Amino acid sequence: MRKLVLLAIVGLLAQLVDGSLGMAYGVTTTTLLLAIGTNPVAASATVHLAEIGTTLVSGASHWRFGNVDWPVVLKIGVPGALGSFAGATFLASLDTSTAKPLMSGILLALGLYVLVRFTFKGLRKDRLGTPLRKRFLTPLGLFGGFVDATGGGGWGPVGTPAILASGRLEPRKVIGSIDTSEFLVSVAASIGFLAALGSQGINFSWVAMLFVGGAIAAPIAAWIVRTIPPRILGSLVGGVIVLTNARTIIGKDGLALDGGATWLVYALVWVVWVGAVLYSLRAHRAEVAAESAGSAEPERELVGDPA
């Protein structure tokens, strides 16, 4: 019973982060399942089955708060489903360990770009509203879906930074669209796992508890995305991407740094990340104050300046 409660809590916290920042549900929950001895295939299958429910609730919540761009959902979600089905089907015979550090390096670079871009320049507006084309979203969806199924998570870490870096969609809609399209990815991956393995190794009570926790958190996360200013949200997302992928690069699959060096890198990332968020918050307040002053100036001209 204690394990089931723990799974529900993990599902809640993971969905709260995923729904707010566009990533981390699969990575977080898969890591827990592997830590308690679940084999990788069963762990990924369990997480994706739970995500069918959590992404459905999350997508509906994001839609309710106006965080979804439906053309983007379809353009990236359909190829994402094809990629995740292929990844689930071939997971047992695939070895992605050598590709993992390379992928993390690419995502780390994207994360750094997002972090720096949003921290120092805010939301790029010269491309905002420009349509995202299929020739960009289709390969992104195929790759993200494949990585998600084979690694137990990765749809958000692949899709969110790539679309954010394009500057064509505001952060809340990037997160809402990625979370909503993940429903298609989760369904396709689950079908692939069940077709290849049946229900072998899948504990459906674990699936249920992960879903319960995630379903509770989904509406809260969608509201958070709606509330946080784009500049601050971009800095938060960029930091999560950097922290997540730095862990892979310095870990046993990458540079294999010793304990002291590892903690030094983590401390540096956290200091930079917190500093970036605080800088974004200060810059946002300055922008709001400048806009308020600018809007007040015409009013003074209309009524006449008593001075």
TrEMBL record:
It is found in: Cell membrane; Membrane. Keywords: Cell membrane, Membrane, Transmembrane, Transmembrane helix. The chain crosses the membrane at residues 102-120, 181-198, 204-225, 232-251, 263-281. It is a multi-pass membrane protein. InterPro entries: TM_pro_TauE-like, TSUP/Inactive_protease-like. It comes from the Bacteria. Its main location: membrane. The keyword Oxidoreductase does not apply. It holds the Pfam family TauE. One of its GO terms (cellular component) is plasma membrane. Belongs to the 4-toluene sulfonate uptake permease (TSUP) (TC 2.A.102) family. This is Probable membrane transporter protein.
